[in-house]
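Q&A log
Question type: sequence-to-structure
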Amino acid sequence: MTRILIIYTGGTVGMMQDASSKTLRPIGFEEIKNNFPELERLNYQWDVFTFDPPLDSSDMNLEVWARIAGIIEDNYGDYSGFVILHGSDTMAFTASALSFMLENLDKPVVLTGSQLPIGAIRTDARENIITAMEIAADRTGGKATVPEVCIYFDYQLFRGNRAKKYNAEKFEAFYSMNYPALAEAGVAINYRRQYILPAPEKPLRIHKTLKPDVAVLKIFPGITLQTVEAVLNTPGIRGVVMETYGSGNTFTAPWFIQALSRAIDRGLVILNITQCDGGAVELGRYETSKHLLEVGVVSGYDMTFEAAVTKMMYLFSFDLPAGEIKKLLETPLRGELNYPASYL
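Response status: OK
Response body:
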């Protein structure tokens, strides 16, 4: 029989309004089940692993990601797929991190949650959870239909390391600007198989050690040398995710380019991603990015911010030389990037 493991970490999906204080409080999975009789009508077996206490997704960190990966590792042989109930605020970070941590994944790991608590009359939690479980259970030709880490929200299934939360108020909280949705749920679930990663032939490998040796430099008009130097000289870091304009452009003041060059010369890896939600970095396309290419800045192509940060954390765990890290950052490992938009 098909078996699904639900990993309940917390989030809005697992909250109810306290009758006396009128504030939202976290609840256990038994209370979720009591508000969700449809779960008992599913024609496959499911079990629950519950975080105690439930965790607000704003408190998500590397240790929790390792714990989730460990739960999947310990139960991998017993279940056909996994559904992670998670707060939406950091869901794209968790999905991106898990995509790198779960190497050779050949079963679905579907993250979902809701914008309204399970006890609210208009909650989106029921549809999100039910469809996420159906996707986790779905098989084609005896194999998982979607053997990758995904986010399901508001009738859309996205590759986890391609998704981004863009709206705090709509049920349509996530989108994937640079990669098509993997499936759309209507009367039936329409899978777009041409965009889904093929199941690997190698056994699953779990990587539970990430290195948080990453800083972020967001470029803006008027940024000062002191700010740039403060980021580039942050103690203990090995890499910087630099968010630039448009297709990877920055201003060309000599002091700025020289600061980047000095940092790279001493071994810092600087990864260039665009501040835009859609589109890709193309170093050298404009004069304002040619200098970055010349000093050794790495192109993040069309990676999301969430994927860029977690991929760096993942790669730094291997203690590779900076040159090898740079090559791997520009190489798609889990479908997290494409060289200029060949998939459209």
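Response note: The chain has nine helices and 20 strands.
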